[in-house]
């Protein structure tokens, strides 16, 4: 039995009560219908559901790769994000990300506190054909999966309650500011002209650098120190998770066109093509080194391709996505190999795959972004003889990396002071499924 802790329940109860109090229960006065397109709205509702599906997909993807004593705990770390971040987003997260700008860094937390003015608000300026509430919930699904991605680096040794606290602080102080800086018209990266179609910077680079911070802060697992090898618990889980991620990623990238438009179709096509190229590149690169083609390798490669095309999906041609997927996969494969030879214990290679993949995607966007694909592109990429976009992307790469890593490391320290982040050696040995949740897999 753990010591009773009433604080989280009291906080949830307080928000529940706020939700029905006058002044906080924002009853719509008149729903805005002018300019709303039913086809765009229908597509964005579907895209929103597709992006949510990615988080259970991630749970299976990660859950299949860990030791069989940690499958349930690892999967729950993704599922709990759907609960925690959904409430946090309604209370204050959406306002921090998309409220009126404070210095181009973060939104005003009071603009949409408790979702004030969202149901009856005017559509978002860059998504004028869908209701604001649809845009808000589409963006929520990005906020849900980002901290869930981080868990792969800390798997098999992180205290569950501490992870939940870290996830809340990360969402408030890393994710929301990055979303604001990148996607709000007054955000500093947006005003620089940085292009991030669907979250290569906001989601994958932030999660990758937070994962590196987590792996460094939590230090090595006992099994890693002893160089003990435990096979993945369930490769079919990884295959299932990859399928769900790939399927959901169409909502992630094509949905970021915020309408049922030719741009959405283009982003859909580049997404599939990059994933296919990257999955093949990973296993072929392994084969070139004398390794056997593996299911795990194809799955990891495909996800790297999905990561890398994310910032570029709506800015590059379909043939270019073959190049992006192939290059990103080979680079991530090599970085993962280097990581495996080091003392860094990033359990599921989150930094080599999401961090490095996101950075490759940001660089590729700076090289290949084209006005012909997306008329919103002001400065074209390096491949078209212009240097401004590429230079700004390099500045953003350095700035975002420093911000995401430093803030995540600080949040880890603060979390550890409140709730110890690392489980005891005994709990780690028995597995987190039992020690954290009193649940376990029954093996056939």
TrEMBL record:
One Pfam family assigned to this protein is: Ammonium_transp
**What compartments host this protein?**
Cell membrane; Membrane
Q: Where are the transmembrane segments?
A: 42-63, 75-106, 126-150, 162-183, 195-218, 230-252, 264-285, 292-309, 315-336, 348-369, 389-412
Q: Is-annotated flag, keyword rRNA processing?
A: no
Membrane topology summary: Multi-pass membrane protein
Keywords on record: Ammonia transport, Membrane, Transmembrane, Transmembrane helix, Transport
Give start and end of each Ammonium transporter AmtB-like domain: 42-440
Keyword flag Transport? yes
Could you say which protein family the record assigns here?
Belongs to the ammonia transporter channel (TC 1.A.11.2) family.
Looking up NCBIfam families in the UniProt record yields:
amt
Q: Which PANTHER family match?
A: AMMONIUM TRANSPORTER MEP2 (PTHR43029:SF10)
Name assigned to this protein: Ammonium transporter
